[in-house]
Write a structure and sequence with these properties.
The protein has helices at about 15-25, 35-45, 60-70, 85-95, 110-135, 150-160, 180-190, 205-215, 230-235, 250-260, 290-295, 300-305, 320-335, 345-355, 360-375, 410-430, 435-440, 445-455; strands at about 5-10, 30-35, 50-55, 75-80, 100-105, 170, 195-200, 215, 230, 240-245, 265, 275, 280-285, 310, 345, 380. The protein is an alpha/beta fold. It folds into four domains: about 5-130, Response regulator (Rossmann fold); about 145-315, P-loop containing nucleotide triphosphate hydrolases (Rossmann fold); about 315-390, Orthogonal Bundle (Helicase, Ruva Protein, domain 3); about 400-460, Arc Repressor Mutant, subunit A, CATH 1.10.10.60. A five-stranded parallel beta sheet has the order 2-1-3-4-5, with helices on both faces. The protein has a five-stranded parallel beta sheet with strand order 7-10-13-6-14. The chain has a two-stranded antiparallel ribbon with strand order 8-9. Helix 13 crosses helix 15, helix 14 (about 345-355) crosses helix 16 and helix 17 crosses helix 18. The two termini are about 40 Å apart.
């Protein structure tokens, strides 16, 4: 794309000169063409961010030129210029892919505001493209993908946390990415060249978990046919990640407390004391302080583990991360399945951004993997999402500090614009859904679904006639 480069295609010299003067005032680079065929030749020879196209022109009209542009240069935005009497044709142009239309005589502020909005959206689109390209170059499973302030704050704190040997307790619901936080701490620490070993404490019964952690000697229990080192020995010099620490028994809690305090232990069935230099990072989705009160978890162990605590918020509280995470997993499973799927539709992203994600990032990953496997298209559509997510009750949510369009991902910026557009249309028709649907040329049922999706209060317009 060009650097804020605009092409004016209009057979009226007066219009071309007027628009040129507006663009010059803002320092935008532009060229002009007096008909559609000449405009097409200029586009073929150079690249433009925006093309302002007169609807009614000789040789090639605006709709024909629009079709040619969208066929070969889909990222170029087209603004249709028309007179009041040609509004139905201009609406048809929008259905074909035009960004919007402008009525003659021009309102200078409207022209400039529209162009600025396009440049903002194109900048965000470019940023998202670079993000996807960057994601394709990293190791997918160990990558922290985020855009939210909450996660930036957590990640910025890890530099200091990683430089100590203090135990760390990572808190958060299942599936929020606690293991990735633990890996990030390890990678930033001086132990990065040593092992990072994970133990899922809820996956094993007590006897097997004890053996898994501390190892065992030959013959120490049925099935112990030889000596085996435990995870503490294997992780010596590195980091041991104890996932779901809240699930361990009182007996294991006592032995774990001793390792933390004295940095030594014995294998199951053994008498030899083994020294270890292993940093412990534990994680839980339980409220350990409450577990201590209920006598389910040792208070002394809790304080030993909770030297530094990091709480990872659920995905529903950091909605800004949904879009980059969705594209992250799309790239991962697109490569794994070797399928030609490269995008997610606006409607699907709006639904995903409004969904509460009880399973957090793990659930989002499963949804994207399923969609990639089942989709027959190059874009993940709403129909590719699980049925329980397709309900209109999942409304668009814009985080409070994402109020300006230039901070929003492109897909959500479009959705925000749609909500404003529908609100204005309902206002003009006094809240009458049938008349509004007819005026904006969509089915009444579809309008009702969009009203639910965007949480628009139709009742506020019912008693006001704005026509």
């Amino acid at each position: 794309m060009g650097d804020n480069k605009i092409l004016i295609v209009d057979d009226s010299m007066e219009n071309r000169e007027l628009l040129s003067a507006m663009l010059e005032m803002h320092g935008w680079e532009y060229e002009t063409a007096e008909n559609g065929e000449l405009g097409l030749r200029k586009i073929e020879a150079d690249s433009y961010d925006i093309v302002l196209v007169d609807l009614m022109m000789p040789l090639m009209n605006g709709l024909e030129l629009l079709d040619r542009i969208k066929e070969s240069w889909p990222s170029t935005e087209v603004i249709i210029i028309t007179a009041y009497g040609s509004i139905p044709t201009a609406i048809e142009a929008i259905k074909k892919g035009a960004f919007t239309y402008l009525l003659r005589p021009f309102e200078p502020d409207e022209v400039i505001l529209t162009i600025k909005k396009i440049f903002e959206l194109q900048g965000i689109r470019s940023e998202n493209k670079m993000l996807r390209e960057e994601l394709s170059r990293v190791l997918m499973d160990d990558t922290m993908v985020y855009k939210s302030f909450e996660m930036k704050k957590i990640l910025s704190s890890l530099d200091d946390v990683s430089q100590s040997n203090a135990t760390v307790l990572v808190l958060g619901e299942s599936g929020v990415g606690k293991e990735l936080v633990a890996k990030a701490i390890h990678k930033k620490s001086q132990r990065a060249g040593k092992p990072f070993i994970k133990v899922s404490c809820a996956a094993l019964p007590e006897q097997l978990l004890e053996s898994e952690l501390f190892g065992h000697e030959k013959g120490s229990f049925t099935g112990a046919v030889g000596m085996r080192k435990g995870r503490f020995e294997i992780a010596n010099g590195g980091t041991l990640f104890l996932d779901e620490i809240g699930e361990i028994s009182q007996s294991i809690q006592i032995k774990l407390l001793r390792v933390i305090q004295e940095l030594e232990f014995e294998r199951v069935g053994g008498t030899k004391t083994i020294k270890c230099d292993t940093r412990i990072i534990a994680a839980t989705n339980r409220d350990l302080a409450e577990e201590v009160k209920n006598a389910n978890f040792r208070e002394d162990l809790f304080y030993r583990l909770n030297v530094i605590s990091i709480k990872v918020p659920p995905l529903r509280e950091r909605v800004e991360d949904t879009v980059p995470l969705a594209y992250h997993f799309l790239e991962k499973y697109r490569k794994e399945t070797n399928k030609d799927i490269s995008d997610i539709s606006d409607e699907a992203l709006v639904i995903m951004s409004g969904y509460k994600w009880p399973g957090n990032i793990r659930e989002l990953e499963n949804v994207i993997e399923r969609a990639v496997v089942l989709s027959k298209n190059k874009t993940i559509e709403v129909s590719d999402l699980p049925e329980n997510m397709r309900s209109p009750r999942f409304k668009l949510y814009i985080p409070p500090h994402y109020e300006s369009a230039d901070m929003l991902p492109l897909k959500l910026a479009k959705a925000k614009w749609e909500k404003s557009y529908l609100g204005n249309a309902l206002k003009r028709h006094a809240g009458n859904i049938s008349r509004t649907a007819e005026a904006i040329e969509i089915a009444r049922k579809n309008l009702q679904e969009k009203i639910k999706q965007h949480d628009i209060d139709v009742a506020s317009y019912l008693s006001k006639n704005h026509d």
